[in-house]
Amino acid sequence: MSIPPSQPVTRLETLEAALRARLGDAIRSLAVRLGEVTIEIAAQDLLAAATRLRDDAALRFDTLIDLCGLDYSEYKGGGWERERFAVVAHLLSVEKNWRLRVRAFCTDDAAPAMPTLTDVWPTANWFEREAFDLYGIVFDGHPDLRRILTDYGFIGHPFRKDFPVSGTVEMRYDPEQKRVVYQPVTIEPREVVPRVVRDERYGVERPDVGLPRGR
User: Fold this and answer.
1) Which of 49, 97, 118, 138 could form a disulfide with 113 if both were Cys (CB 3.0 to 4.6 A apart)?
2) In this structure, what are the phi and psi dihedrals at residue 76, rounded to the nearest 5 degrees?
């Protein structure tokens, strides 16, 4: 009986095998979708896993491309039953020419926190400041964790799903005080209703002008 030739191993399969062998039980989940690998790591294991991802000869993720925060509070129509906040890091191995997405969830929704990755990849510095500014995620051990996009006196974190679209305060220049002042928002909240076309003949060519209706 002839033995069928073995199927060639793809780069994603090689990466998946290397991740499972090097990180082991630190991987809470691993998914391969749309040509990309995503792993989930527990927050308490993130720093050790990141160091292994950078230094292990079989992985060599030497570059942090991006890091961002996520708010899952309204995910799946509000049916999300896990932790609310997460941090996602996008990694690149120049040597191996492959990429990886690493996700970790903050264990406390009321005070989300995550260990800083600045000691592993210094480029995490401003990315973590942005995630702190927009989502309120604190990165323990960060050398200079302060707002980076909003004003120093800004209240709240504007990318959280429960943050009002109009904000909480507005800023203007007061000519009498000759300085910038803050005041409560004066914009009236309104619901934006998308335009719905109900004419069944919409877009049908009109014989009187020879153009589709609506042009």
Assistant:
1) 138
2) 55, 40
